[in-house]
Specification:
With 409 residues, the protein is mainly α. The chain has three domains: 17-145, Arc Repressor Mutant, subunit A (Orthogonal Bundle), CATH 1.10.10; 163-253; 302-408, no CATH class. 57% of the residues lie in helices and 5% in strands. It contains 17 helices and six strands. It has helices spanning 17-27, 37-46, 48-51, 55-66, 84-90, 96-108, 141-145, 147-188, 202-214, 222-250, 256-265, 302-308, 323-336, 341-351, 353-366, 373-385, 391-408, and strands spanning 35-36, 72-73, 79-80, 113-115, 123-126, 132-139. The strands form two sheets. Strands 3, 4, 5 and 6 form a four-stranded antiparallel beta sheet that branches. It has a two-stranded antiparallel ribbon with strand order 1-2. A hairpin with a 5-residue loop joins strand 5 (123-126) and strand 6 (132-139). The protein is elongated, with a radius of gyration of 33 Å. The two termini are 58 Å apart. It comes from Candidatus Rhodoblastus alkanivorans. InterPro entries: ArsR-like_HTH (IPR011991), RepABC_RepC (IPR047611), RepC_C (IPR021760), RepC_N (IPR005090), WH_DNA-bd_sf (IPR036390).
Length: 409
Amino acid sequence: MGTHYATTPFGRRSLTLAHVASQAIAKTRPPEKAVHKWNVFRAICTGKSRIGVSERALAVLDALLSFHPETVLTGDGLIVFPSNQQLSLRAHGMAPATLRRHLAALVDAGLIVRRDSPNGKRYARKDRGGEVELAFGFDLSPLVVRAEEFEAWAEEVHAEERALKLVRERITLCRRDIAKMITTGVEEGVPTRRAGQGPADWTEIHTLYRAIMARIPRSATRSELEPIAEELSLLADEVLMLLETHVKTQIPNGNESQTERHIQNSNPDSPIELEPGFPKKQGARSEPTSEPRRMPEGSYPLGMILDACPDIVDYAKGGIANWRDFLATAAVVRPMLGVSPSAWEEAQAAMGEVQAAVVVAAILQKGAAINSAGGYLRELTRKAEAAEFSIGPMLMALIGARKRDKKRA
């Protein structure tokens, strides 16, 4: 007398064509085929987006696999029959209603097949020798039949993740190169227009760069990032060409000795003066370049400011290790943002040199959220003169926004 397994589920559960297809796939399993259950489970976890199951459903599948006594899935004994109470305990105390919902999701995804008994209970009938003769529960046969399919999906997901990682690395490298090359161009006074062609100035190049960066979504896919990476790569090549053309013009017969003397004569630690016509205040004493500037009185720690405004580091010539580096970098960023010398002078007079530089870093960090950097700085200057502005809440808001973005990512 042959064994008949039920085709339809017990109770009010309906039968769908997808369930019929899963049962048909389970029947095609060769009796001699064997797979490692945990290898299949890892492949399913990797390719869960292709399969259409959630992490909670995978936790239930993990619990179901733990009820199969062998590590290898093979032969006819592939039906597990735990009660909902036992299954809930192994699924980390999942609620009964949630458990039933995720079991249904596993069945709909074709990972398991229901083998319901006449009364809907899960149990096994054994023969006189103690061997399981007939079992009612969940059939794991689809995992054996579709093992190669799950592994192929896992490989595709791994390849997609690797491609996404590569394009992100490309964007990071282009971003670093463009920012530092723009800084060099501003510091060295490199012309951007040749024979009446090219961008008007470095501010225009920086505006184009920030516009490209503003198009990057918070949770971007590879297809969204690839065109942006291509645009950044082209922009980086164009900026590098400007610098190389300037170097060839300055040193037409350049050799190693001339290049070496040029590097030795430069002073990367000296403050950058982008506005020669701006008079220095009388009585100001220059600090020695070998000694880093201490934290100004009443200011926030430099590490906290860089945590709130990390984008300014991209414009530093050799990183920001002290306040002198920070102030020099802010002097480079200020004209790129379109802040006029008069607005900058008023901000320094109202806030102080350090706080004005911090505000510039904050404006850079906010990016496209500020339409006019110069107008925004003048408004903050007016509030500072009226004692209505404090830089602390601005830094806290930026740090909080970065933490929220990391959580969303």
